[in-house]
Amino acid sequence: MVSASIPNNIPRKIPRFTGSARELVRAPHRFFLQLTADYGDIVQYRAAPEPAYLLNHPDYVKHVLVGNGRNYNKDTYLNKYLLESLTGKGLLTSENPLWRKQRRLIQPAFHRHNLATFTDLMGDATNQMLARLNEHAVQGNAFDMAEEMMRLTLDIVTRALFGYNISEQATAVGEAVNTLIEIAKPKRRKFQETLKFLDEIVFGIIERRRLEGNDDRYDLLDMLLQSRYEDTGEGMSDQQIRDEVMSLLIAGHETTANTLSWLWYLLGQHPDAVEQIETEIGGTLNGRSPTLADFPNLAYTNKVIKEGLRLYPSAWSISRRALGDDEIGGCHIPAHSIIALSPYTLHRHPDFWPDPERFDPERFTPEQENGRHRYAYIPFGGGARKCIGDQFALMESIIILPMTLQRFRLQLVPDHPVEAHALVTLRPKHGILMTATRRTD
User: pTM for the whole thing?
Assistant: First the structure.
């Protein structure tokens, strides 16, 4: 606590964690949670080789992402060393003025009326996944739902990007993406070889599309190829298109798959929530696939998805670097400092989320949402650099959950260990083993 006798113009001292950071390497999401419990909403720790500041209050988050956002860039290990090695100068890692130029060019593709064109695609891919679940149900086999979600979201994002099912390459692309994220060390030989392999696929698709020309298809790659910069009238280079494709591929595949995996894990523990979803989709859909017009009538399903994103945000950590000195929460933040914002810990802040570990979709009624600090919930980040594909990801979830629950009753395999593994994203370390039974009603 800060003494009331300290003048307001004197920066207060920031608590500093000086113990072993072994847990930071082993389970950084738990390490961050413990730091906030022990030291409060701002604490200094060491993220080798430099000190960092963990901020865990919505006011501080808003300050970094919005209020003084120009003072913070993405020049951190995660963004520049790891993600940029994967996505180059795409939207995930580029800085101004390139980022603003690219965002302005790409944003229209993710407007709601354009996203509506992808609902049928999502439904078709989900039906293929359901056919695989049916085989498991018939044979009585347990299966890894996390693996199924990875396969499904890869199918969706490759179709959305490339306009057709690159089935002969999709498995290889998925394995390559998973390998790159799991290795997470760009200097390793296998990382470089895998990245080269993935580049060859992506550049090959771009080259074929340029040769084919425009055949009135609508997909994200066509949008990238046809878009023109306002100032020059020129299109993007193949390298820039590759970087944007890789950004959309990584973000649109990995993060959504994790979100869905954790949702199935939570629903497997809360049959009452499953029953409410089933009642809602029974009255709204009557056995058919959801359309965009159905979304407003799937209110409880949407609340479940939001609560899943609260407890298990795939993008569990956001990092920034301070360009100049700043003051946050009465504390001096030196220039060049690393700033860590963790949706995983923020979404468990007891001042904004009573009984934070409890699964409770009713936290997301309109009344609850309107009364909560806007930056207490940031599963897709916030400010100008909020994830461009957030609505695409939510659409996938609100289509996939009802379609699956219409066909199957799903149960977790007892005693299978489920553990959150915080890499670039928050993955279930040992997968999510489930069994499926066909519904007969």
Answer: 0.93
